Amino acid sequence: MSSVETKEATDSQWWKEAVVYQIYPKSFNDADGDGVGDLRGIERRVDYLDELGVDAVWLCPVYESPQADNGYDISDYRSIHPAYGDMDDWRRLLDALHERDIRLVMDLVVNHTSKEHEWFQRSRRRDGEYEDYYIWRDGSPDEPPNNWESCFGGPAWTYDDEREQWYLHLFDENQPDLNWRNPAVRDSVYEMMEWWLSQGIDGFRMDVINLISKAEDLPDGEPGAGQTGTEHFFNGPNIHEYLREMRDRVLSDDSLLTIGETPGVGVDDAKEYVGSDGSGLSMVFQFEHVTFDHDGHKWNAGNWSLAEFKEVLSKWQTGLEDDGWNSVYLNNHDQPRMVSRFGDDGDYRRESAKLLGTLTHTLQGTPFIYQGEEIGMTNASFASPDDLRDVESLNFIEESLERSDVQSYEDVRDAIEYVGRDNARTPMQWSDDPNAGFTEGEPWIQCNSNYETVNVERARADEDSVLHYYRDLIELRDERDVLVYGEFELLLPDHPAVFAYTRTLGDERGLVVLNFESEPVEFVVPADVALDGLELAIANADAPTVPSDSFELGPYEARVYLTPTQHT
Ligand code: TEU
Questions:
Q1: What CA dihedral angle connects 270, 276, 280 and 283, to 10 degrees?
Q2: For a substitution probing ligand 1, which of 113, 207, 331 has the most ligand atoms within 8 Å of its CB?
Q3: Which of 13, 229, 367, 390 would give a disulfide with 221, using CB separation of 3.0 to 4.6 Å?
Q4: In CATH, which of 3.20.20.80, 3.40.50.1370, 3.40.50.620, 3.40.50.10700 is domain 19-113+183-378+448-472?
């Protein structure tokens, strides 16, 4: 049990009332001037996180790694990547967070390792028990064992000359998949998890955890729009057996937060992970609300309607209401900046950033803030492929240039600048100093050119900033159980511009009204919505303290009306 003594400490489900802040260490803050963010850089900013009011930090991978996928390719689970620091730096960060009642959740990447990991190096040499640590198959060097595709494009298999066999990698070829059918692999993973728990961490975010179990005979997938083969490794045959074993062996401390990243799950699948009869995760990251506009694949995303957006989010709100718990996020290190995707990063950047924050902090579930979201950071521009670093985007460009209808980078630039992962990975914007105050050195990836106006220093000094609004949102959610536990009900599902819903917890009621358009719109409150006793709790524009039957909403206007708390 970690040393955090907070009011929720006794309650094993503290994370329901928490707000989690996601840190992408490579881009957060650089203390040693090498242009790469690091642990001491994060430690220097813990007071910033404390002022924001977050309850936990999810730290993306900081482990030893050749960085083929920015740390999601781990070569040693028990040491820190030198550019990020060392275990002493990590322990100081843990202590600094715990001193401020902020918990630390580490990233657990065990679907695959790096090719550089000792396990893989020994496995390719058929070295003793490691021989069967990965998914190897015979076959002629010019014909992969099946038609499965990598999530980053191309076949999911690479032929290894040393072992003279193929190995499976659902991501980059530098990320071979572990063979979870091998009990020795599971033992090694559980020992590693226990080691990190013994360091005092408060939980795990589990990378693509629903991919660890593959169909036994690895049959061909049905070629279609998306990644071929997913029907044979999304929510595979033994996934819940493995997660129950992991829970029983390692995760018996029920105050631990466990978040499974589970691409491809629907509501019913999710219940098998997080429901009362589920395999014991606290929550999952589902992808439906960030892929609903993907027509086969992400690179043609962008054509969506508010009604569709409302439908997918409401389905999860009501779907897990009685059994399970939602995670609530609109962006992360794999997704474009939410204000650019779902809002307006031009004339209404501030208003729409606040509106989207209002949505994530008033839906049922635990909000996840991705670094920079709280100051309204936007997507960036990448004039040349040389400006990019993300393996997925670079592979997409390479594949595209092989197509006859693509002449140059310019032909795919819009797609990259709309959904490319590097949009989320430009350095955190602390000030208008050179390189946004992120580093004294040369940043590993360019800063967003708008850092002179969009930065923490400026936001702190501006009472009307997105940052101050997020602080108020987090404080409000912390004070009002109706926003945490209240029943969700969508209003006017087909309204093309307004996303409105109520939250109800006993006698406590809330009404949330969000205009997703850059034009004013009238909102007529449905007759069955009781308005008595509702008072304005927070809004991103001047608004009447009590709601009327109908009201005019400005561009991207957000309002939250709540009945007074019963115990005041
Ligand atoms: O992401 C898994 C995943 O679903 C993403 O690859 C996503 O589909 C894609 O990036 C959308 O463009 C996890 C990590 O979050 C990601 O950063 C890693 O690259 C990946 O796993 C492999 O570890």
A1: 50
A2: 207
A3: 229
A4: 3.20.20.80
